[in-house]
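Re: weekly structure request thread

Next one in the queue (74 aa):
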Amino acid sequence: MTAAEISSALDDCLLSRKQVMAATTLSYPMIWRKMQEGKFPRGREVGGRTCWLASEVQAWIKSRPVKRLKGEVV
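Done, posted below.
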């Protein structure tokens, strides 16, 4: 397996609620609210539990705005 294949496989792995909360630093009620508003990837039901595709969570994280620095002129 090549590095690209491994990276692709990891992108499509499933994340648990705890893993998503740790990755995003959001509480579960906030994740739920954002899903209802269409502002966060919807979970998938797997074995009676909700899981998220790592690639979708990563894409959401990457879409967050970059924090401006104090005194920075845009």
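The chain has four helices and three strands. The beta strands are 14-15, 44-46, 49-53.
Next request, please.
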